[in-house]
Structures are given as C-alpha cells and as structure tokens.
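Quick check before the chapter quiz. The format below is the same one you will see on the exam, so make sure you can read both the input and the output lines.
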Amino acid sequence: MCGAVTVKATVTKPIVRACHCDMCRRHTSSMFMSLPATGITVEGPAKTYQSSDWAERGFCEVCGSTLWYATMGDGVRNLSAGLFENAGDAPLKLEFFADAAPGGYALAGDHRKMTTKETMALFAPSEGDTI
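Here is the expected output.
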C-alpha cells in the first residue's frame, strides 16, 4: 500500500485461492486471497509473524499491508492477491476452510471448496486427524 516493500514474482498458472480460517479473517478482516507464485524476491522492510506451528504471514513493517502466507515446512509463499493488478485476472479456483466462512458472504462461481477437516489434513496431517 505504501510502496516501501517491492515484491517480484513469476505467476505461471494464475489462480486465486481464498482462505476463511480464523487467523486469516483476523489478519485481513475478511478472507485471505492469494496467488501461487515462484521466483519471489522481496525488497524493503518486510517482516514475518509465525502464526502457527507450520505457517507464517508476511507484512510491510511500515504500513502493515498483508504480503503473503507461507508454509514453513516447504518455504512456499502464497502472495496476497492484492499485490497484483486486478488479481492478475486470475480465476478463483479454491477456498480453504469453506465451512468456516461467515454467513454474510459467499464467493460465486464453480470452484473447489475444502472443509476445515480437508484443509487441516492437507497442511497439518497430524492435527487434521484429530479434528
């Protein structure tokens, strides 16, 4: 938002993903929408916050803008869709924690909607088995 951080990346298969987990909703005041990318370079005062045993969130130290959600085990960063003009014209393809989405909104379109149990099994298999 303020321009203090510059993020460069390659998006080869542009798709938008939305996450409705409690942490993403607290962090963004809505859902976190991301685009998967590779070759990511970050310049400027970016900071991270470890939000769970397996993930961290990147943000601008100056204005607080959300930059990414990253899984620490594999180092994959999922960049905030807001970093891209018109979200890179990418279609919405996936919702995580779809059953946790607030009742006041729903995302249109025909795309995959993973439940909390399915999402946890994907990102934290040992925890997903106990939910």
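If your answer matched, good. Residues 6-128 form a domain with the Metal Binding Protein, Guanine Nucleotide Exchange Factor; Chain A fold (CATH 2.170.150).
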